[in-house]
Model the fold of this input.
Amino acid sequence: MGKEYFPEVSQPIAYEGVDSDNPLAFHYYDADRVVAGRPMKDHLRFAVAYWHTMRGTGSDPFGGGVYDRPWGQGSTEMEQAHDTMDASFEFVSKLTAPFWCFHDRDIAPEGGSVAESNANLKEIVDHAEQKQNETGIKLLWGTANLFSHPRYTHGAATNPDPLVTAHAAAQVRRAIDATIQLGGAGYTFWGGREGYASLINTNLKQEREQLAAFLKMAIAYGRSQGFEGDFYIEPKPGEPTTHQYDYDAATVIGFLHEFDLMNDLKLNIEANHCTLAGHTFEHDLQTAAAAGRLGSVDANHGAILGWDTDEYPTDLASNVQALLVVLKMGGFTNGGFNFDAKVRRGSFDTVDLFHGHISGMDTLAHSLLIADRIIQDGEIDAFIDQRYAGWKEGIGAKILSGGATLEELEEYAAAQGEAEKRSGRQELRERLFNKYIYSKNIH
Ligand code: XUL
Ligand code: CO
Done:
């Protein structure tokens, strides 16, 4: 074995149960424990995001990097890239997460030409493939960074200059190749700078057409190369552009319908993006799942700062609702929970990367247990079911099936008289939901 980057964790993180006081142990995540018919690890399919975990510097809008990572000390960028890959697989192995995720430019530096960038990427992907084989860690999804390079300032697929779009296409082609070589279960498109700041200088109609054409090209390429995994699109309302074309789950579903892409892409829903859009995490998850298009999740949390702070998920109530959606759709196919999360600027130590991930994994494992109990108890579902009982038969069923008319409904309303006012019992439901979180002692 080469250099050890995380000597503070000598053994893989183990499950020790809720009574453990060991911070470097799981208190809820017990990978092989069977819940709702499958092991926890297969429900949750945890992935570590290379960009935040390995390449995060602690920079924020008010100051540059503050971490001195031991894997960033090599004398050339390629040497650093190789060291970072080794460090990453050591981290993910010790964390016992089964998957990782990356952008092309996280793992290998951009070169001075398309050919050099491609060669850098290929060299590091070969290294990653060897590490995957050694450790058994798999790739949840790959993606291309189409937002950091200055050429992408006005967008990639939606740039006014098709030469910029061609550079983006070159990157996506090779990122898909890399994903295929690494056996990736998915490939993600996040909008990056696909949006605009002002309509005064923007052709909105055409930019959306450009984006659709680009996605179609990329999907056709992936399938022609034998990629059988899922393609995801990840909604986000703003940041970096003021108006992103992939604002939220509902907007993306409309876009997919408009451009006949509904069968080609699923959604990768990120918690902090939902809250930035003015929704809850569970709202966007339910919206995607209702359309049959929930593919994967970027797990994180955004507090009150008002930007995409990518904190580790710790909000049990919200994540229980997330797990309810995932369990009720029958679990992920190719997706999973990718920690698109980072340690705070002041969390300087490499051990903080473990604390963040362990915290997130335990939150989601605990949420899984609670969601499973809620489904088994059936009380919450029974209440909702009862609330909509009128739609199961008679006039309700007729409306839903498309068999009713306005004239017929007018007649029905006139004959029945006024509808009864029925309480939605929100306050009671909230209290009963909280019992699952706080007082039923589920572990
Ligand atoms: C940005 C974001 C990305 C995507 C992948 O907010 O979430 O990291 O997940 O490009
Ligand atoms: Co994300």
Observations:
- Residues 190, 234, 270, 298, 340 surround cobalt (II) ion (ligand 2) (CB under 6 Å).
- The chain has a mean pLDDT of 98.
- Residues 227 and 401 are 38 Å apart (CA to CA).
- The two ends are 37 Å apart (CA to CA).
